[in-house]
């Protein structure tokens, strides 16, 4: 029996989590759930966004499945998700993007790539933010380390080997950002030399964005720094139908958190119309991580079959189903 920490989240989070757990239960995987609070629900119940009990649960179980959280505007964390990544050193953000049938996608075939994003340093972390007293100048510190660069690039190449992928594209801006992006690129080249069986190429980030829009099938695994990865992974989601089909994994040496990357969508919360696919696909990533790749494939195949059959799809996918009926249709194919 494997116990995972389950964070039901805010907004539509509880609805898509209930749907996801319904499907996982139908698979009879021997999973047990330890429920924990975070976000606005935790603030209301416990007076803090990330209670100690939640952190202890993740630390103990080492695996968490998480619905979207709302970070309140104003003081406190800039982002609960960023705070979780910092506290557990979840250095690898892994975002697959793949074409699915019967979606409002720019591409109906050919896109099957993974963005591997460094998750703990760089401009995105927001270190050293400062605004001058007159409000005229803002400053931000951007720090990139050899250690951070080495381990994320190594993760990308190991993922390529593990999944049978053939190419890793290193994305950078070393032509201009010669210190930070330059160190990342130099380190990436050193790591790539240890993987002669995997093709490695380099692209400047602006050219990468253009190439993704024009010819996304040329990409297999993209490895890049934090801010570039944040932008590129959402661009890739847009190629295949949007964030409703975008899962994400945040992986470290001692813990891993799997999630839907879209927001908590408070405008549709409680209406039962939210698409659970992103969290279900996040659960498939979790099964891969747990050493159950056959079960992960089984889950993804059931999602694809349900989309192909247009069976109880949610309104965003052009159907007349609801969150739970969609989940039940997927479960019926398992």
TrEMBL record:
<dbReference type="GO" id="GO:0000287">
    <property type="term" value="F:magnesium ion binding"/>
</dbReference>
<comment type="similarity">
    <text>Belongs to the isocitrate and isopropylmalate dehydrogenases family.</text>
</comment>
<dbReference type="InterPro" id="IPR019818">
    <property type="entry name" value="IsoCit/isopropylmalate_DH_CS"/>
</dbReference>
<dbReference type="Pfam" id="PF00180">
    <property type="entry name" value="Iso_dh"/>
</dbReference>
<dbReference type="GO" id="GO:0006099">
    <property type="term" value="P:tricarboxylic acid cycle"/>
</dbReference>
<protein>
    <submittedName>
        <fullName>Isocitrate dehydrogenase</fullName>
        <ecNumber>1.1.1.41</ecNumber>
    </submittedName>
</protein>
<keyword id="KW-0560">Oxidoreductase</keyword>
<dbReference type="GO" id="GO:0004449">
    <property type="term" value="F:isocitrate dehydrogenase (NAD+) activity"/>
</dbReference>
<dbReference type="GO" id="GO:0006102">
    <property type="term" value="P:isocitrate metabolic process"/>
</dbReference>
<feature type="domain" description="Isopropylmalate dehydrogenase-like">
    <location>
        <begin position="3"/>
        <end position="330"/>
    </location>
</feature>
<dbReference type="InterPro" id="IPR024084">
    <property type="entry name" value="IsoPropMal-DH-like_dom"/>
</dbReference>
<dbReference type="GO" id="GO:0051287">
    <property type="term" value="F:NAD binding"/>
</dbReference>
């Amino acid at each position: 029996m494997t116990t995972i920490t389950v964070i039901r989240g805010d907004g539509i989070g509880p609805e898509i989590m209930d749907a996801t757990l319904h499907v996982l239960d139908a698979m009879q995987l021997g999973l047990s759930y330890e429920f924990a609070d975070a976000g606005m629900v935790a603030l209301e119940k416990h007076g803090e966004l990330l209670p100690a009990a939640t952190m202890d649960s993740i630390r103990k179980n080492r695996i968490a499945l998480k619905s979207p959280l709302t970070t309140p505007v104003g003081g406190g964390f800039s982002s609960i998700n960023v705070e979780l990544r910092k506290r557990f050193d979840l250095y690898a953000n892994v975002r697959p993007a793949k074409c699915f049938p019967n979606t409002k996608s720019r591409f109906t075939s050919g896109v099957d790539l993974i963005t591997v994003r460094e998750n703990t340093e760089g401009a995105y972390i927001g270190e050293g933010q400062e605004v001058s007293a007159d409000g005229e100048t803002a400053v931000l510190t951007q720090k990139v380390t050899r250690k951070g660069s080495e381990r994320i690039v190594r993760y990308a190449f190991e993922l390529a080997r593990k999944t049978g992928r053939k190419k890793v594209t290193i994305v950078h801006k070393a032509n201009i950002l010669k210190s930070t992006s330059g160190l990342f690129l130099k380190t990436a080249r050193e790591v790539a030399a240890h993987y002669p069986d995997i093709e490695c190429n380099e692209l400047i980030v602006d050219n990468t964005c253009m190439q993704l829009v024009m010819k996304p099938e040329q990409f297999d695994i993209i490895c890049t720094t934090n801010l570039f990865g944040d932008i590129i992974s959402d661009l890739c989601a847009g190629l295949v139908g949007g964030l409703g089909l975008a899962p994400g994994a945040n992986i470290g040496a001692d813990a891993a958190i799997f999630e839907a990357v879209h927001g908590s969508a408070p405008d549709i919360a409680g209406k039962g119309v939210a698409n659970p696919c992103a969290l279900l696909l996040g659960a498939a990533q979790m099964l891969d991580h747990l050493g159950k790749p056959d079960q992960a494939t089984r889950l993804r195949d059931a999602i694809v079959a349900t989309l192909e059959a247009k069976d109880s799809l949610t309104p965003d996918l052009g159907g007349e189903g609801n969150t739970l009926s969609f989940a039940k249709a997927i479960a019926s194919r398992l």
